[in-house]
Amino acid sequence: MSTTDTPTPGAVPADAEREALGWFVRARGGLSVQEQGEFVAWQAQDPTHAQAYARWQADWQQLDALPEEGVAQLRAHLAQDLARERATAPRPVRGWLAGSWAGSATMVASVAVVAAGGLLAWQHWQQQPVFEKHIATRTGEQVDVQLPDGSHLRLDTATAIDVALFRQRREVRLPEGQAVFRVQGDAARPFDVLAGPLRITVVGTRFSVRNTPGIPGEEGVRVAVEEGRVRVARADGPAPGAVVELSAGQQIASDATGQLGPVAAVPASGIAPWRESRVSFDNTPLAQALAEFGRYGPTRLTVRDPAVAALRLTGTFDPRRLDNFVRVLPRVLPVRMQEPAEPGAAAVTEIVAAP
């Protein structure tokens, strides 16, 4: 376990971004010999200058490919923000930005940014996802998902996720259920999983996340790493030194508020056993075990006696074979199955204390 405070990688000052945009626009129109010398000198002044210019070159291909309606949407989203910034920090349009680019819709959008004295339009465009998808599994269903970035997800039963891939980051929200993530490495685009109160950040690895706030005793979030490393912190911003780094074979769990517990070792067989149709219990209250079975389908089992509900169960079961669980349970716990007085489609069997 280690704790780290990691600065945002690849940060480029806003002034460098503005200057890089200026040079980029001028270069597209052709530079004189004198201007070429000035451009080379500008790049040599600071490493962030070359970084900013390279970003404009790479991102321009995507911006230039936007359809006209995309550019119109970008302008519409920015109208208020540009007006606000123009009122508080007005800047005239520099001469070399006027004229020859007026016919390009995308260039006009970029020029408007510089004229407004900020990078609002560019930032808005960067913040728009290039891929979005909501995926949910039904009770008893598991699905495999391949993302456009090469990452692979395996969703367990009763699980919902929202995927958003951006130009500079990747994000998956897991409001309910559990999933295994095999993340395609991309140092320029970190991969975040937001589950309950936690944020899990990786570059390239395989790990599982469980977030089942409706299961008694499992209201928090559990993270286990199969390969690579991940960082775990509160989603609303970690306190100084409150970022926990996990490596392969380690897991951590939080409570419902995001308070992290200790890092613990976990065997490979204990990471997302549901992939092999197994649910494992280790000194688990019977009521909690029944709730876990209920995630995979109707059990038609209930326990009303608090003393019986609190009995502890240890073992591994196939959630698809509830009949095996019902047969084994009286052998490992002092209970019996009390069949309903009136059998029927809605009949429920109660688990009661053995005489």
Automatic annotation (TrEMBL):
Domain FecR N-terminal: 18-57
Source taxon at top rank: Bacteria
GO MF annotations, alphabetized: sigma factor antagonist activity
Keyword Hydrolase: no
Gene3D superfamilies: 2.60.120.1440, 3.55.50.30
Species assigned in the record: Acidovorax soli
Transmembrane is among the record's keywords: yes
UniProt keyword annotations, A-Z: Membrane, Transmembrane
Record-linked InterPro entries: FecR, FecR_N, Ferrdict_sens_TM
FecR protein domain boundaries: 135-231
Protein name as annotated: Transmembrane sensor
